[in-house]
Write a structure and sequence with these properties.
heterodimer; A: alpha+beta; 3 domains; globular; B: 393 residues; alpha+beta; Jelly Rolls; 15 strands
Chain lengths: 390, 393
């Protein structure tokens, strides 16, 4: 029984079927992007064990598919089991072994990247200093109070996915409970308008919520827009402290609970760094007579209090800053309104990928393996020809 | 067996991907730097607390957030009759409603309803912004009267501007035209605007006017908007009838008139003027040397600050702004009949004079202002002060 299982897991037929299914998943994953957008399609087809494709506008699962995780796992198992059951180590096959190790490294490296890599955005204006970057997708409801000093905040951050209507949330560090009244994946905030909204109550009873309304919007899946979530929560200490509207578009609000002032803010998930970057200067050059970017360049000052490092760095296209396990790529550039000062703005894409080296190593091993195998065949071929020529 | 163990561990590790995303995080972090003071595109600080709390993205309409279309069925019923041929468009930015009309030849018009806090930068600034959009030179305060007309909107009278562009700004082929009605409502101002290809706007003008007339402004007799009714401290602009006459206004009890305005003694000779944006009431003081203009308005909070308002008025009569510490020496305190006290300023310019009183009451500030040629202001100084002193909130 077990031997049959190993025979199946090590078979070349399985490899071919898995690779074929990989092509099919890539095909339907690409089709899925048209309706789901890149990020949802990634999650649905490639970061999943099973998937199904539905035609645009239909909810009926039409084509069941293996997910990317399933295919990747099966390929790794197939390759490893094949090595221990079918392949026998000989010097003449060392190139093939190297190639296979390279492929395994690529697959495992992708898994590690998937688990460990984080992408975020650090955006600032000239003169601003940032010691955190923000997720471009995920939001959190943050409650902040002074941590006893003038410079530090105590933060309790609740992920947006935890905000579900009807749920009640408690945390040992929060002296109040949070009841979620409404939650929106994507919503638009606007001031409650006279005439138009006369029959519509304000979004909440407290804070800015008493002057706004929340318009639910269909979730967006496009690359050039992002969902901005919103929620209406009720904060209850010993008694109810009213309802509050929170949204990624709103500025922090303040609520006093038992003599302590808490700020509540629905914001992009933050990733704090042990160092800070100050945007000194932005350079935005285009090719003459066009809007095509020629050079986006940010001059930043990097300061690390622990290592006493203090230096200026230029970040531009294809020349990222690598520091502290992070890579800062030049991402976007702009200019704030003249009324706000007209300063240049810059957004850096911040990537943390501890396994960034594995694809390079994997590719090198595959390349070297193929080269070794080719050279061995070549030398054998030449050696076989020589006696005949003689 | 060894392989099975490796496989299971690998699979478990794989399945762990994504875990931890929904856990509450607790950490200490450096405090954020205080935000830069919000400023509107005219460079003036915003006047209402609400406008400063709502981010620039929502106030300016230039948001990075998704602006996807929402179906009409998701939207609440609109308080007006949408003319035939107007196609609803997704509202975005500060727009509370948006419509469009398109012709096969590419001509189109855009109809919008925008609500903004306070006076939204002022009448002249808004008119000039609209003029700029259709390629017209900026107008002056004196030009406004010629561009303005009074039209009915619901059971109210509002100011409408018609701006006729001359340059072919649309696709380089068509000149543009804008019709914009301004409806002050409590602490906000609502702008109803149609803009687009000149001839098509002219063609749609009857529909635009009918649409405005159909707006359900609520209340009775034009004294109150629904917004004002819903808000305990937000009176709507009074109709001319509500403030006309030369005697004391009827007391509404409870420290104020039924329409939210304070009681006051209107001096004889003053004539109630028509509705004007941002004002709760206006009076004309007829004089051969040039009419005096009395305005009563109200803003939430301190209305941008006492000194800032006094300096704005000083600028209007050509005086240099005061330093922060100089206001006390250039003003006095005036007491009203109702027991409130305000700041009284007399700003004498070379041609014009402004007499003003600013009364802060709780969460709102009241502004009483007389603008007149200096000689006329001097003659009416006592009368205006008596008027201010007669006020009972």
């Amino acid at each position: 029984m077990i031997s049959k299982l190993f025979q199946f897991l090590s078979s070349l037929r399985l490899t071919v079927v898995l690779l074929g299914l990989g092509v099919v998943v890539v095909f339907f994953g690409t089709l899925g992007q048209t309706s789901d957008g890149l990020y949802v399609a990634q999650e649905r087809y490639f970061r999943s064990w099973f998937a199904y494709w539905t035609p645009h506008g239909s909810t009926f699962p039409v084509v069941p598919l293996p997910g990317g995780y399933l295919l990747g796992t099966m390929l790794v198992i197939n390759l490893i089991v094949a090595h221990f059951t079918r392949f026998k180590w000989t010097w003449s096959k060392s190139g093939i072994f190297l190639t296979h190790i390279g492929i395994i490294l690529l697959l495992l490296g992708q898994l590690a990247t998937d688990m460990l890599a984080r992408e975020s955005i650090m955006s600032f204006r000239e003169g601003d200093t940032r010691n955190y970057s923000e997720s471009s997708m995920d939001f959190e409801l943050a409650f902040l109070r002074s941590a006893g000093s003038n410079t530090l905040d105590q933060v309790v951050a609740i992920p947006a996915v935890r905000l579900k209507p009807g749920d009640e949330l408690h945390h040992e560090l929060l002296p109040f409970g949070i009841r979620v009244k409404e939650a929106y994946e994507n919503a638009r905030i606007r001031l409650r308008a006279p005439v138009m909204d006369s029959n519509r109550p304000p979004a909440a009873t407290q804070g800015v919520g008493a002057r706004i309304v929340i318009d639910a919007q269909p979730p967006t899946r496009t690359m050039d827009a992002r969902n901005v979530p919103a929620a209406v929560i009720e904060i209850s200490g010993p008694s109810s402290l009213g309802t509050w509207a929170v949204s990624g578009e709103l500025k922090p609000q303040t609520v006093a609970v038992e003599g302590t002032e808490w700020r509540l803010e629905y914001r992009s998930v933050r990733d704090y760094k042990p160092f800070a970057l100050t945007l000194l200067k932005t350079t935005h050059e285009t090719y003459p007579g066009t809007d095509i970017p020629k050079n986006f360049q940010s001059r930043v000052r990097l300061r690390n209090a622990e290592s006493h490092e203090d230096r200026e760095v230029d970040i531009y296209m294809n020349s990222p800053l690598r520091f502290g396990g992070y890579t800062f790529f030049q991402y976007q550039m702009g200019k704030e309104q003249l009324a706000d000062g007209g300063r240049g703005t810059s957004a850096l894409q911040v990537v943390r990928n501890p396994s960034w080296i594995t694809p390079y190593l994997g590719c090198i091993l595959v390349g070297v393996g193929l080269l070794v195998q080719f050279l061995m065949h070549l030398t054998k071929f030449i050696a076989q020809r020589k006696p005949r020529a003689a | 067996m060894r392989f099975t163990v490796v496989t299971v561990v690998s699979a478990l590790a794989w399945m762990a991907v994504g875990c931890g995303k929904d856990e509450v995080r607790v950490y200490q972090a450096p405090q954020d730097a205080p935000p830069v003071a919000a400023a509107n595109p005219q460079g003036k600080t915003t006047q209402t607390p609400s406008a400063s709390e709502v981010p620039e993205s929502a106030a300016s309409g230039s948001s990075s957030s998704a602006r996807s279309e929402s179906s009409a069925s998701e939207r609440p019923a609109v308080p007006w009759t949408v003319p035939a041929g107007w196609e609803e468009k997704p509202a975005s930015g500060m727009r509370v409603a948006s419509y469009g009309v398109k012709r096969p030849d590419g001509r189109s018009v855009d109809i919008s309803v925008v609500a903004m806090g306070g006076g939204a930068g002022g009448e002249l600034e808004n008119v000039n912004r609209w003029r700029d959009q259709i390629g017209l030179e900026p107008a002056t305060e004196a030009d406004l009267a010629g561009l303005r007309s009074i039209i009915p909107a619901g059971n109210r009278q509002v100011v409408m501007y018609q701006l006729d562009g001359k340059k072919a700004v649309l696709d380089g082929k068509y000149p543009a035209r804008t019709l914009a009605a301004i409806m002050p409502a409590g602490e906000m101002t609502v702008f109803f605007k149609i803009t687009g290809e000149s001839a098509l706007v002219a063609e749609q003008k009857p529909q635009f006017l009918a649409w405005l007339k159909s707006v359900d402004t609520g209340g009775g007799g034009g004294e109150s908007t629904p917004e004002a009714s819903a808000s305990s401290s937000a009176p709507a602009p009074a109709s001319p009838a509500a403030v006309s006459g030369g005697s004391e206004r009827a007391s509404g009890g409870g420290g104020g008139g039924a329409d939210g305005l304070p009681n006051w003694q209107v001096p004889s000779g003053w004539k109630a003027a028509g509705p004007k944006p941002m004002r709760l009431a206006s009076f004309d003081i007829p004089d051969a040397a040039g009419n005096g203009d009395v305005s009563i308005s109200k803003l939430s909070g301190n209305g941008g600050g006492l000194l800032a308002n006094v300096n704005r008025w000083r600028g209007q009569v050509g005086l240099a702004p005061l330093e922060a510490g100089a206001l006390a020496a250039n003003s006095k305190t005036v007491a009203t009949a109702g027991g409130d006290s305000g700041t009284w300023v007399e700003l004498v310019g070379t041609e014009k004079t402004i007499l003003g009183a600013i009364v802060a009451r709780g969460e709102v500030s009241w502004f009483f202002k007389l603008t007149a040629p200096s000689a006329v202001a001097a003659q009416n100084r006592e009368t205006f002060e008596q008027f201010v002193r007669s006020i009972r909130f």
